[in-house]
Write a structure and sequence with these properties.
Keywords: Transferase
Distance between the termini: 16 Å
Low-confidence stretches: none
Strand content: 15-25%
Oligomer: single chain
Radius of gyration: 21 Å
CATH class of the largest domain: Alpha Beta
CATH topology of the largest domain: Rossmann fold
CATH architecture of the largest domain: 3-Layer(aba) Sandwich
Number of helices: 15
Number of domains: 2
GO molecular function: glycosyltransferase activity
Protein name: Glycosyl transferase group 1
Mean pLDDT: 96
Strand order of the largest sheet: 3-2-1-4-5-6-7
CATH superfamily of the largest domain: Glycogen Phosphorylase B
Domain Glycosyl transferase family: 170-327
Helix content: 40-55%
Order of helices and strands: EHEHEHEHEEHEHEHHEHEHEHEHEHHH
Organism: Pseudodesulfovibrio profundus
């Protein structure tokens, strides 16, 4: 087999188990390696770095991005970042005269700094982020310079590891996030007393419990109802966790610029309950969860509890929403389709710059 035609370096700040790193990993490991040779650079190593190396992806860890750029001379650098000014990432690319720079703008933020002029294409992880960006900068952000490209989800693997027969009446609900207060809302705790009153055998499986959550459970004597679990780092473990649930309870006051956990729950045929966020906060959770179709949207703790009760008391409706969500995930978020779209963007930029092998 001949060597791949184009070298692509994906750059991310760290290689922990967060959603940004998982998305980067999905892109890198699913590129057509007959055409694109992927590499990864990060300032800090972590679990994703270990997994990438197990998948034979060469990773560079350290502080000297410029040296890596000069050594590899990639045709394309794909940066995964929040969107606000980040000269440590962009200035080395200008110094190395990188031919093409693509960014996945995770939070839809605007970078007015001179170093951002090197970026050839900005990819937003939801239409919400793209539209909000247009509002913030005061012009319509359109293709080919700006586009929405959903985060890839390994729908096929999640479906393959999720039980085909699910008991949607089982009073087991779950939530999953990093152990980070910024990923939580009080709504994700305050619905509990309303539920336990009517479902004494209710169980809440929580990955990513913060100290406030542990304290709330103890204060309200909910230790028999809430089970705190360790994080998961592989989709097989994630599917096993999702497979125990009747629905996913999502609550995050910051909101979601995409909502990877929501999309993964949908792939596992779970209905999702979420809530809106105010103002210009992230609200892509409402782009994923269609009220009454793939889940339910609630604004208060009592509404949230009533939504859970409704789905537990109406398992046929819960199943319908779960399957609708699974179909939506297959249609819009499936890794193979998203990566194919990314490769098309790469090809457009290579053609635009006149780069051939």
């Amino acid at each position: 087999m001949s060597e791949p035609s184009f070298r692509v370096l994906h750059v991310v700040n760290s290689l922990g188990i967060g959603g940004t790193q998982k998305v980067m990993q999905q892109f890198v490991t699913n590129l057509n390696q007959e055409r694109f040779k992927p590499f990864v650079f990060s300032f800090r190593d972590g679990e994703r770095g270990k997994q990438l190396r197990e998948q034979n992806i060469l990773t560079y860890i350290g502080s000297d991005l410029l040296s890596v750029l000069l050594k590899l001379q990639p045709h394309i650098v794909h940066v995964h970042r929040a969107g606000w000014p980040d000269p440590n990432l962009l200035k080395p690319m200008k110094l190395a005269q990188t031919p093409i720079v693509v960014e996945t703008n995770v939070f839809g933020r605007h970078d007015p700094s001179p170093s951002a002029s090197i970026i050839d294409a900005t990819l937003f992880v939801s239409h919400f982020c793209l539209d909000r960006y247009s509002q913030l900068v005061g012009f319509k952000a359109t293709a080919p310079r700006y586009r929405a490209l959903y985060n890839p989800v390994d729908v096929d693997r999640l479906m393959a590891n999720t039980p085909e027969e699910k008991d949607y009446a089982r009073p087991i609900v779950g939530r999953i996030s990093r152990v980070d207060p910024g990923k939580w809302s009080r709504l994700g705790l305050e619905f509990l007393p309303f539920i336990v009153r009517d479902f004494p055998d209710f169980r809440y499986h929580v990955i990513g419990g913060i100290p406030e959550a542990h304290a709330y459970v103890k204060e309200h004597n909910l230790q028999d109802n809430v089970i705190f679990l360790p994080p998961v780092s592989h989709d097989e473990e994630l599917a096993s966790f999702m497979g125990e649930l009747s629905l996913l309870a999502h609550a995050n006051d910051t909101g979601e610029s995409f909502g990877l956990v929501i999309a993964e729950a949908m792939a596992c045929a779970l209905p999702v309950i979420t809530h809106p966020c105010e103002g210009l906060k992230d609200n892509a959770q409402l782009e994923l969860v269609d009220h009454g179709e793939t889940g339910l949207i609630a604004k208060t703790a009592e509404e949230y509890a009533n939504a859970i009760k409704y789905l537990l008391n109406n398992p046929d409706e819960a199943q319908r929403m779960g399957l609708n969500g699974q179909q939506k995930a297959r249609r819009l978020y499936r890794t193979q389709n998203i990566v194919s779209d990314l490769e098309s963007i790469y090809d457009e930029l290579l053609k635009q710059k006149g780069i051939r092998t």
